[in-house]
Amino acid sequence: MRVTIFGTGYVGLVTGTCLADVGHDVVCVDIDQAKVEGLNRGVIPIYEPGLEPMVKANHAAGRLHFTTDAASAIGHGDLIFIAVGTPPDEDGSADLKYVLAVAATVGRHIERPVVVVNKSTVPVGTADKVQATIAAELRARGLEIAFDVASNPEFLKEGDAVNDCMRPDRIVVGSSNPAAVEKLKRLYAPFNRNHERIVVMDVRSAELTKYAANAMLATKISFMNEIANIAEKVGADVEMVRQGIGSDPRIGWHFIYPGAGYGGSCFPKDVQALARTAQQHGYGARLLDAVEAVNDSQKGHLFELIQRHYGGDVKGKTFAVWGLAFKPNTDDMREASSRTLLAQLWAAGARVRAYDPEANEEAERIFGEREDLVLCDSARAALADADALVVVTEWKQFRSPDFVRIRQALADAVIFDGRNLYHPDEVEAADLAYYGIGRGRSI
Ligand code: UGA
Protein backbone atom coordinates (compact mmCIF):
# COMPACT_ATOMS: atom_id res chain seq x y z
CA MET A 1 0.00 0.00 0.00
CA ARG A 2 1.05 3.61 -0.48
CA VAL A 3 1.69 5.32 2.83
CA THR A 4 2.71 8.86 3.77
CA ILE A 5 4.06 9.65 7.21
CA PHE A 6 4.45 13.15 8.64
CA GLY A 7 7.25 13.37 11.18
CA THR A 8 10.54 11.48 11.22
CA GLY A 9 10.96 11.38 15.00
CA TYR A 10 10.99 8.12 16.94
CA VAL A 11 7.46 7.10 16.07
CA GLY A 12 7.37 8.28 12.46
CA LEU A 13 10.78 6.98 11.46
CA VAL A 14 10.40 3.59 13.11
CA THR A 15 6.83 3.09 11.84
CA GLY A 16 7.75 4.17 8.32
CA THR A 17 10.76 1.89 8.24
CA CYS A 18 8.85 -1.14 9.54
CA LEU A 19 5.98 -0.57 7.09
CA ALA A 20 8.50 -0.36 4.23
CA ASP A 21 10.22 -3.48 5.51
CA VAL A 22 7.05 -5.55 5.02
CA GLY A 23 6.68 -4.23 1.48
CA HIS A 24 4.63 -1.04 1.67
CA ASP A 25 5.67 2.00 -0.34
CA VAL A 26 6.43 4.68 2.24
CA VAL A 27 7.16 8.40 1.96
CA CYS A 28 8.29 10.13 5.17
CA VAL A 29 7.93 13.90 5.35
CA ASP A 30 9.70 16.27 7.70
CA ILE A 31 10.06 20.05 7.73
CA ASP A 32 13.68 19.72 8.89
CA GLN A 33 15.68 19.87 5.65
CA ALA A 34 18.98 18.84 7.24
CA LYS A 35 17.35 15.79 8.83
CA VAL A 36 15.77 14.73 5.54
CA GLU A 37 19.03 15.19 3.65
CA GLY A 38 20.81 13.16 6.32
CA LEU A 39 18.24 10.35 6.13
CA ASN A 40 18.61 10.23 2.36
CA ARG A 41 22.35 9.72 2.92
CA GLY A 42 21.72 7.05 5.57
CA VAL A 43 22.36 9.26 8.60
CA ILE A 44 19.92 8.24 11.35
CA PRO A 45 19.13 11.13 13.71
CA ILE A 46 18.43 8.91 16.74
CA TYR A 47 20.17 5.98 18.37
CA GLU A 48 17.86 2.99 18.12
CA PRO A 49 19.23 -0.55 17.95
CA GLY A 50 18.61 -2.23 14.58
CA LEU A 51 17.11 0.82 12.92
CA GLU A 52 20.02 2.00 10.79
CA PRO A 53 20.48 -1.11 8.62
CA MET A 54 16.72 -1.32 8.12
CA VAL A 55 16.46 2.30 7.00
CA LYS A 56 19.38 1.85 4.61
CA ALA A 57 18.10 -1.42 3.13
CA ASN A 58 14.56 -0.17 2.53
CA HIS A 59 15.78 3.16 1.21
CA ALA A 60 18.08 1.36 -1.22
CA ALA A 61 15.22 -0.93 -2.25
CA GLY A 62 13.16 2.14 -3.16
CA ARG A 63 10.37 1.46 -0.65
CA LEU A 64 11.32 4.19 1.83
CA HIS A 65 11.64 7.82 0.78
CA PHE A 66 12.38 11.00 2.72
CA THR A 67 11.27 14.41 1.60
CA THR A 68 10.37 17.92 2.73
CA ASP A 69 7.87 18.24 -0.12
CA ALA A 70 4.55 17.86 1.69
CA ALA A 71 2.37 18.40 -1.39
CA SER A 72 3.83 15.55 -3.42
CA ALA A 73 3.96 13.32 -0.33
CA ILE A 74 0.25 13.90 0.22
CA GLY A 75 -0.33 12.92 -3.40
CA HIS A 76 1.47 9.65 -2.73
CA GLY A 77 -0.41 8.11 0.18
CA ASP A 78 -3.75 6.34 0.44
CA LEU A 79 -3.09 6.45 4.15
CA ILE A 80 -1.58 9.61 5.64
CA PHE A 81 -0.11 9.23 9.10
CA ILE A 82 0.46 12.08 11.52
CA ALA A 83 3.42 11.20 13.74
CA VAL A 84 4.68 14.58 14.90
CA GLY A 85 5.48 15.70 18.43
CA THR A 86 2.98 16.83 21.05
CA PRO A 87 5.18 18.65 23.58
CA PRO A 88 3.64 19.76 26.86
CA ASP A 89 2.08 23.20 26.91
CA GLU A 90 2.83 25.56 29.81
CA ASP A 91 -0.04 24.07 31.82
CA GLY A 92 0.92 20.44 31.12
CA SER A 93 -1.68 19.77 28.44
CA ALA A 94 -0.48 18.47 25.07
CA ASP A 95 0.37 21.19 22.58
CA LEU A 96 -1.34 20.32 19.31
CA LYS A 97 0.24 22.96 17.10
CA TYR A 98 2.34 20.48 15.09
CA VAL A 99 -0.50 17.99 14.69
CA LEU A 100 -2.92 20.66 13.51
CA ALA A 101 -0.30 22.21 11.20
CA VAL A 102 -0.02 18.84 9.44
CA ALA A 103 -3.82 18.60 9.29
CA ALA A 104 -3.95 22.03 7.62
CA THR A 105 -1.24 21.01 5.14
CA VAL A 106 -3.21 17.87 4.30
CA GLY A 107 -6.36 19.96 3.77
CA ARG A 108 -4.48 22.32 1.47
CA HIS A 109 -3.11 19.58 -0.76
CA ILE A 110 -5.37 16.52 -0.95
CA GLU A 111 -6.83 15.85 -4.34
CA ARG A 112 -8.56 12.50 -3.69
CA PRO A 113 -10.17 10.61 -0.80
CA VAL A 114 -7.69 9.58 1.91
CA VAL A 115 -7.63 8.19 5.42
CA VAL A 116 -5.70 10.41 7.82
CA VAL A 117 -4.36 8.37 10.71
CA ASN A 118 -3.26 9.95 13.93
CA LYS A 119 -0.31 8.18 15.54
CA SER A 120 0.89 11.02 17.75
CA THR A 121 -0.16 10.79 21.38
CA VAL A 122 -3.02 13.26 21.51
CA PRO A 123 -5.77 14.13 23.98
CA VAL A 124 -9.21 12.68 23.52
CA GLY A 125 -11.09 14.76 20.98
CA THR A 126 -8.08 15.61 18.80
CA ALA A 127 -9.34 13.56 15.85
CA ASP A 128 -12.35 15.89 15.75
CA LYS A 129 -10.02 18.90 15.65
CA VAL A 130 -7.97 17.32 12.85
CA GLN A 131 -11.19 16.60 10.97
CA ALA A 132 -12.37 20.21 11.39
CA THR A 133 -8.99 21.65 10.34
CA ILE A 134 -8.87 19.62 7.13
CA ALA A 135 -12.53 20.40 6.38
CA ALA A 136 -11.89 24.14 6.82
CA GLU A 137 -8.98 24.05 4.35
CA LEU A 138 -11.07 22.14 1.84
CA ARG A 139 -13.90 24.65 2.19
CA ALA A 140 -11.42 27.46 1.58
CA ARG A 141 -10.39 25.68 -1.61
CA GLY A 142 -14.05 25.24 -2.55
CA LEU A 143 -13.56 21.47 -2.75
CA GLU A 144 -15.52 18.54 -1.47
CA ILE A 145 -13.28 15.54 -0.99
CA ALA A 146 -14.19 12.62 1.25
CA PHE A 147 -11.66 11.90 3.97
CA ASP A 148 -11.67 10.11 7.28
CA VAL A 149 -9.64 10.62 10.44
CA ALA A 150 -8.70 7.52 12.41
CA SER A 151 -6.68 7.03 15.58
CA ASN A 152 -3.91 4.45 15.70
CA PRO A 153 -1.80 5.08 18.81
CA GLU A 154 1.75 3.82 19.01
CA PHE A 155 3.04 1.73 21.92
CA LEU A 156 6.71 1.29 21.00
CA LYS A 157 9.46 1.73 23.61
CA GLU A 158 12.68 3.57 22.92
CA GLY A 159 15.60 1.18 22.77
CA ASP A 160 13.35 -1.66 21.63
CA ALA A 161 11.32 0.26 19.09
CA VAL A 162 12.01 -1.85 15.99
CA ASN A 163 11.11 -5.04 17.81
CA ASP A 164 7.95 -3.50 19.28
CA CYS A 165 6.92 -2.29 15.86
CA MET A 166 7.64 -5.55 14.04
CA ARG A 167 6.09 -7.70 16.80
CA PRO A 168 3.36 -5.59 18.38
CA ASP A 169 1.32 -7.11 21.21
CA ARG A 170 -1.69 -5.16 20.02
CA ILE A 171 -2.62 -2.75 17.26
CA VAL A 172 -5.32 -0.31 18.31
CA VAL A 173 -7.44 1.05 15.48
CA GLY A 174 -9.91 3.79 16.35
CA SER A 175 -12.44 4.46 13.63
CA SER A 176 -16.15 4.05 13.07
CA ASN A 177 -15.75 4.01 9.30
CA PRO A 178 -15.64 0.39 8.02
CA ALA A 179 -13.68 1.36 4.88
CA ALA A 180 -10.96 3.05 6.95
CA VAL A 181 -10.81 0.07 9.34
CA GLU A 182 -10.44 -2.26 6.37
CA LYS A 183 -7.54 -0.22 4.98
CA LEU A 184 -5.72 -0.23 8.31
CA LYS A 185 -6.31 -3.97 8.71
CA ARG A 186 -4.75 -4.56 5.30
CA LEU A 187 -1.82 -2.33 6.16
CA TYR A 188 -1.11 -4.18 9.40
CA ALA A 189 -1.86 -7.70 8.13
CA PRO A 190 1.88 -8.62 7.99
CA PHE A 191 2.25 -7.81 11.71
CA ASN A 192 -0.91 -9.61 12.77
CA ARG A 193 0.53 -13.09 13.28
CA ASN A 194 -0.56 -16.08 15.37
CA HIS A 195 -3.60 -14.48 16.91
CA GLU A 196 -5.73 -11.40 16.30
CA ARG A 197 -3.79 -8.37 17.50
CA ILE A 198 -5.95 -5.67 15.98
CA VAL A 199 -8.42 -4.14 18.41
CA VAL A 200 -10.98 -1.96 16.67
CA MET A 201 -12.83 0.69 18.65
CA ASP A 202 -14.23 4.19 18.34
CA VAL A 203 -11.80 7.08 17.92
CA ARG A 204 -12.12 8.52 21.43
CA SER A 205 -11.58 5.19 23.12
CA ALA A 206 -8.44 4.66 21.02
CA GLU A 207 -7.13 8.08 22.00
CA LEU A 208 -7.79 7.36 25.68
CA THR A 209 -6.28 3.86 25.44
CA LYS A 210 -2.85 5.32 24.72
CA TYR A 211 -2.91 7.54 27.80
CA ALA A 212 -4.39 4.81 29.97
CA ALA A 213 -1.56 2.42 29.01
CA ASN A 214 1.20 4.90 29.83
CA ALA A 215 -0.52 6.15 32.97
CA MET A 216 -0.95 2.57 34.22
CA LEU A 217 2.74 1.82 33.69
CA ALA A 218 3.79 5.08 35.35
CA THR A 219 1.46 4.26 38.25
CA LYS A 220 3.15 0.88 38.74
CA ILE A 221 6.55 2.59 38.91
CA SER A 222 5.46 5.31 41.32
CA PHE A 223 3.73 2.69 43.44
CA MET A 224 6.94 0.67 43.70
CA ASN A 225 8.95 3.79 44.46
CA GLU A 226 6.54 4.54 47.26
CA ILE A 227 6.91 1.01 48.63
CA ALA A 228 10.70 1.46 48.34
CA ASN A 229 10.53 4.62 50.42
CA ILE A 230 8.45 2.82 53.04
CA ALA A 231 10.89 -0.12 52.96
CA GLU A 232 13.72 2.27 53.66
CA LYS A 233 11.92 3.68 56.69
CA VAL A 234 10.88 0.35 58.19
CA GLY A 235 14.16 -1.47 57.54
CA ALA A 236 12.99 -3.78 54.74
CA ASP A 237 14.51 -4.52 51.33
CA VAL A 238 12.22 -3.56 48.44
CA GLU A 239 14.06 -5.99 46.14
CA MET A 240 12.81 -8.83 48.31
CA VAL A 241 9.34 -7.31 48.31
CA ARG A 242 9.44 -7.01 44.52
CA GLN A 243 10.27 -10.67 44.19
CA GLY A 244 7.59 -11.49 46.70
CA ILE A 245 4.82 -9.79 44.76
CA GLY A 246 5.87 -10.13 41.09
CA SER A 247 5.04 -13.83 40.85
CA ASP A 248 1.36 -13.04 41.37
CA PRO A 249 0.22 -12.87 37.75
CA ARG A 250 -2.30 -10.18 38.67
CA ILE A 251 0.67 -7.97 39.59
CA GLY A 252 3.31 -9.29 37.18
CA TRP A 253 7.06 -8.82 36.93
CA HIS A 254 7.06 -5.87 34.55
CA PHE A 255 7.41 -2.26 35.58
CA ILE A 256 7.77 -2.92 39.28
CA TYR A 257 11.42 -1.88 39.43
CA PRO A 258 11.95 0.92 41.91
CA GLY A 259 14.60 3.42 40.96
CA ALA A 260 15.54 7.03 40.50
CA GLY A 261 12.14 7.86 38.96
CA TYR A 262 10.76 7.55 35.46
CA GLY A 263 11.79 9.94 32.69
CA GLY A 264 11.65 10.09 28.93
CA SER A 265 9.43 11.85 26.48
CA CYS A 266 6.27 9.90 27.30
CA PHE A 267 5.40 9.06 30.90
CA PRO A 268 6.00 12.48 32.50
CA LYS A 269 4.22 14.28 29.68
CA ASP A 270 1.35 11.81 29.27
CA VAL A 271 0.49 11.48 32.96
CA GLN A 272 0.36 15.26 33.17
CA ALA A 273 -1.67 15.62 29.98
CA LEU A 274 -4.24 13.03 31.06
CA ALA A 275 -4.65 14.73 34.43
CA ARG A 276 -5.12 18.00 32.57
CA THR A 277 -7.72 16.52 30.21
CA ALA A 278 -9.61 15.12 33.20
CA GLN A 279 -9.52 18.51 34.88
CA GLN A 280 -10.82 20.23 31.75
CA HIS A 281 -13.78 17.87 31.93
CA GLY A 282 -14.41 18.70 35.57
CA TYR A 283 -12.74 15.64 37.09
CA GLY A 284 -9.83 15.91 39.48
CA ALA A 285 -7.61 12.88 38.76
CA ARG A 286 -6.15 12.47 42.25
CA LEU A 287 -4.31 9.25 41.51
CA LEU A 288 -2.58 10.69 38.44
CA ASP A 289 -1.55 13.79 40.38
CA ALA A 290 -0.06 11.52 43.06
CA VAL A 291 1.79 9.41 40.48
CA GLU A 292 3.42 12.56 39.18
CA ALA A 293 4.18 13.97 42.64
CA VAL A 294 5.81 10.70 43.79
CA ASN A 295 7.94 10.65 40.65
CA ASP A 296 9.05 14.26 41.05
CA SER A 297 10.28 13.61 44.57
CA GLN A 298 11.79 10.25 43.61
CA LYS A 299 14.07 12.00 41.14
CA GLY A 300 15.58 13.80 44.10
CA HIS A 301 15.97 10.66 46.22
CA LEU A 302 19.51 9.79 45.16
CA PHE A 303 20.63 13.23 46.23
CA GLU A 304 18.88 12.78 49.58
CA LEU A 305 20.82 9.55 50.13
CA ILE A 306 24.03 11.34 49.20
CA GLN A 307 23.25 14.17 51.61
CA ARG A 308 22.49 11.66 54.35
CA HIS A 309 25.84 9.95 53.85
CA TYR A 310 27.79 13.19 53.82
CA GLY A 311 25.87 14.85 56.65
CA GLY A 312 24.50 17.47 54.25
CA ASP A 313 27.83 18.74 52.95
CA VAL A 314 29.10 17.66 49.53
CA LYS A 315 30.85 20.92 48.67
CA GLY A 316 34.09 20.18 46.83
CA LYS A 317 33.29 16.46 46.43
CA THR A 318 33.57 14.78 43.02
CA PHE A 319 30.94 12.25 41.98
CA ALA A 320 31.42 9.68 39.26
CA VAL A 321 28.01 9.32 37.55
CA TRP A 322 27.32 6.21 35.48
CA GLY A 323 24.44 6.74 33.09
CA LEU A 324 22.83 9.94 31.85
CA ALA A 325 20.14 8.67 29.46
CA PHE A 326 16.62 8.26 30.91
CA LYS A 327 16.99 4.51 30.37
CA PRO A 328 19.46 2.12 28.70
CA ASN A 329 19.81 1.67 24.93
CA THR A 330 18.99 5.24 24.10
CA ASP A 331 20.80 8.57 23.96
CA ASP A 332 17.63 10.36 25.04
CA MET A 333 17.95 12.55 28.14
CA ARG A 334 14.51 14.11 28.12
CA GLU A 335 13.21 14.30 31.70
CA ALA A 336 16.06 11.99 32.74
CA SER A 337 16.64 11.54 36.48
CA SER A 338 20.32 12.29 35.86
CA ARG A 339 19.42 15.89 35.09
CA THR A 340 17.80 16.38 38.49
CA LEU A 341 20.75 14.73 40.23
CA LEU A 342 23.39 16.77 38.40
CA ALA A 343 21.54 20.03 39.06
CA GLN A 344 21.31 19.18 42.77
CA LEU A 345 24.97 18.18 43.00
CA TRP A 346 26.10 21.33 41.25
CA ALA A 347 23.85 23.54 43.39
CA ALA A 348 25.49 21.97 46.45
CA GLY A 349 28.98 22.74 45.16
CA ALA A 350 29.94 19.22 44.02
CA ARG A 351 31.64 18.25 40.76
CA VAL A 352 30.64 15.50 38.35
CA ARG A 353 32.59 13.07 36.17
CA ALA A 354 29.94 11.39 34.02
CA TYR A 355 29.90 8.55 31.53
CA ASP A 356 27.05 7.26 29.38
CA PRO A 357 27.61 4.75 26.56
CA GLU A 358 25.40 6.77 24.19
CA ALA A 359 24.30 10.05 25.75
CA ASN A 360 27.60 11.90 26.30
CA GLU A 361 27.08 14.01 23.20
CA GLU A 362 23.54 14.84 24.21
CA ALA A 363 24.83 15.83 27.66
CA GLU A 364 27.36 18.14 26.04
CA ARG A 365 24.58 19.72 24.00
CA ILE A 366 22.37 20.20 27.06
CA PHE A 367 24.95 21.36 29.61
CA GLY A 368 27.60 22.96 27.40
CA GLU A 369 31.07 23.59 28.77
CA ARG A 370 31.17 23.86 32.53
CA GLU A 371 34.05 23.41 34.86
CA ASP A 372 32.10 21.20 37.29
CA LEU A 373 31.33 18.60 34.60
CA VAL A 374 33.75 16.24 32.90
CA LEU A 375 32.25 13.86 30.34
CA CYS A 376 34.39 10.71 30.32
CA ASP A 377 34.76 8.12 27.61
CA SER A 378 34.54 5.07 29.84
CA ALA A 379 33.02 3.97 33.11
CA ARG A 380 36.51 3.50 34.51
CA ALA A 381 37.64 6.98 33.45
CA ALA A 382 34.69 8.47 35.32
CA LEU A 383 35.98 6.89 38.54
CA ALA A 384 39.39 8.54 38.34
CA ASP A 385 39.81 11.16 41.09
CA ALA A 386 36.20 10.68 42.19
CA ASP A 387 35.09 10.46 45.81
CA ALA A 388 31.91 8.43 45.26
CA LEU A 389 30.02 6.58 42.51
CA VAL A 390 26.36 7.16 41.61
CA VAL A 391 24.65 4.78 39.17
CA VAL A 392 21.69 6.43 37.46
CA THR A 393 20.94 4.35 34.33
CA GLU A 394 20.93 0.55 34.25
CA TRP A 395 23.11 -0.01 31.16
CA LYS A 396 24.15 -3.66 30.91
CA GLN A 397 27.85 -2.78 31.05
CA PHE A 398 27.38 -1.36 34.58
CA ARG A 399 25.89 -4.57 35.94
CA SER A 400 28.98 -6.52 36.99
CA PRO A 401 31.77 -4.07 37.73
CA ASP A 402 34.98 -4.95 39.53
CA PHE A 403 34.17 -3.67 43.01
CA VAL A 404 37.74 -4.02 44.22
CA ARG A 405 38.92 -1.69 41.48
CA ILE A 406 36.09 0.72 42.28
CA ARG A 407 37.16 0.63 45.93
CA GLN A 408 40.71 1.52 44.91
CA ALA A 409 39.52 4.42 42.75
CA LEU A 410 37.06 6.10 45.11
CA ALA A 411 38.41 8.31 47.86
CA ASP A 412 35.28 7.94 50.02
CA ALA A 413 34.52 4.29 49.14
CA VAL A 414 30.78 4.62 48.65
CA ILE A 415 28.29 3.62 45.93
CA PHE A 416 24.82 5.11 45.46
CA ASP A 417 22.91 2.66 43.29
CA GLY A 418 19.90 4.42 41.78
CA ARG A 419 18.65 1.29 39.96
CA ASN A 420 19.38 -1.44 42.51
CA LEU A 421 21.81 -3.14 40.14
CA TYR A 422 23.98 -4.57 42.89
CA HIS A 423 23.55 -6.77 45.90
CA PRO A 424 24.49 -4.84 49.03
CA ASP A 425 26.50 -7.79 50.41
CA GLU A 426 28.62 -7.99 47.27
CA VAL A 427 29.42 -4.27 47.37
CA GLU A 428 30.06 -4.25 51.10
CA ALA A 429 32.35 -7.27 50.75
CA ALA A 430 34.68 -5.02 48.74
CA ASP A 431 34.73 -2.61 51.67
CA LEU A 432 32.48 -0.08 49.98
CA ALA A 433 29.47 1.55 51.63
CA TYR A 434 26.27 0.84 49.68
CA TYR A 435 23.07 2.82 49.26
CA GLY A 436 20.29 1.51 47.05
CA ILE A 437 16.66 2.48 46.54
CA GLY A 438 14.39 1.10 49.24
CA ARG A 439 17.06 -1.08 50.79
CA GLY A 440 16.31 -0.27 54.36
CA ARG A 441 18.36 -3.09 55.79
CA SER A 442 21.61 -1.57 54.53
CA ILE A 443 21.07 1.93 55.86
C1 UGA B 1 6.95 4.27 27.16
C2 UGA B 1 6.07 3.00 27.12
O1 UGA B 1 6.71 1.94 27.79
C3 UGA B 1 5.74 2.62 25.69
O2 UGA B 1 4.84 1.52 25.67
C4 UGA B 1 5.09 3.82 24.99
O3 UGA B 1 4.78 3.56 23.64
C5 UGA B 1 6.04 5.00 25.04
O4 UGA B 1 6.33 5.31 26.41
C6 UGA B 1 5.40 6.16 24.34
O5 UGA B 1 4.34 6.63 24.79
O6 UGA B 1 5.88 6.57 23.29
P1 UGA B 1 9.59 4.72 26.89
O7 UGA B 1 9.29 6.12 27.37
O8 UGA B 1 10.44 4.56 25.69
O9 UGA B 1 8.22 3.94 26.58
O10 UGA B 1 10.34 3.99 28.08
P2 UGA B 1 10.05 2.87 29.17
O11 UGA B 1 10.86 1.68 28.86
O12 UGA B 1 8.62 2.66 29.35
O13 UGA B 1 10.67 3.54 30.46
C7 UGA B 1 10.17 4.78 30.99
C8 UGA B 1 10.86 5.15 32.28
O14 UGA B 1 10.39 4.32 33.33
C9 UGA B 1 12.38 5.01 32.28
O15 UGA B 1 12.94 6.16 32.88
C10 UGA B 1 12.64 3.79 33.14
O16 UGA B 1 13.87 3.84 33.81
C11 UGA B 1 11.49 3.84 34.11
N1 UGA B 1 11.12 2.53 34.69
C12 UGA B 1 10.61 1.55 33.91
C13 UGA B 1 11.28 2.31 36.06
O17 UGA B 1 11.73 3.21 36.81
N2 UGA B 1 10.89 1.10 36.58
C14 UGA B 1 10.38 0.11 35.83
O18 UGA B 1 10.05 -0.96 36.39
C15 UGA B 1 10.24 0.34 34.45
UniProtKB/TrEMBL annotation:
Q: Does the keyword Oxidoreductase apply?
A: yes
Reaction(s) catalysed by this chain, per the record, are: UDP-alpha-D-glucose + 2 NAD(+) + H2O = UDP-alpha-D-glucuronate + 2 NADH + 3 H(+)
Q: Which SMART domains match?
A: UDPG_MGDP_dh_C
**Which parts of the sequence bind substrate?**
F155, L156, K157, E158, K210, F255, I256, Y257, P258, G259, G263, K327
* InterPro entries on file: 6-PGluconate_DH-like_C_sf (IPR008927), NAD(P)-bd_dom_sf (IPR036291), UDP-Glc/GDP-Man (IPR017476), UDP-Glc/GDP-Man_DH_C (IPR014027), UDP-Glc/GDP-Man_DH_C_sf (IPR036220), UDP-Glc/GDP-Man_DH_dimer (IPR014026), UDP-Glc/GDP-Man_DH_N (IPR001732), UDPglc_DH_bac (IPR028357)
Q: Which Pfam families match?
A: UDPG_MGDP_dh (PF00984), UDPG_MGDP_dh_C (PF03720), UDPG_MGDP_dh_N (PF03721)
Q: Where does NAD(+) bind?
A: D30, K35, T86, T121, E158, K269, R334
Question: Has the keyword Oxidoreductase been applied to this entry?
Answer: yes
Which pathway is this protein engaged in? Nucleotide-sugar biosynthesis; UDP-alpha-D-glucuronate biosynthesis; UDP-alpha-D-glucuronate from UDP-alpha-D-glucose: step 1/1
The UniProt entry's GO biological process terms, in alphabetical order, are: polysaccharide biosynthetic process
Superkingdom to which the source organism belongs: Bacteria
Q: Name one GO molecular function term.
A: NAD binding
**Alphabetized UniProt keyword annotations:** NAD, Oxidoreductase
**E.C. number(s) listed in UniProt:** 1.1.1.22
Active-site feature positions: C266 (nucleophile)
Q: Which residues form the UDP-glucose/GDP-mannose dehydrogenase C-terminal domain?
A: 320-424
Query: Which family does the UniProt entry place this protein in?
Result: Belongs to the UDP-glucose/GDP-mannose dehydrogenase family.
What function does this protein fulfil?
A: Catalyzes the conversion of UDP-glucose into UDP-glucuronate, one of the precursors of teichuronic acid.
Q: What is the protein's name according to its record? A: UDP-glucose 6-dehydrogenase
What is the protein's species of origin?
Lysobacter firmicutimachus
* Source taxonomy: Bacteria, Pseudomonadati, Pseudomonadota, Gammaproteobacteria, Lysobacterales
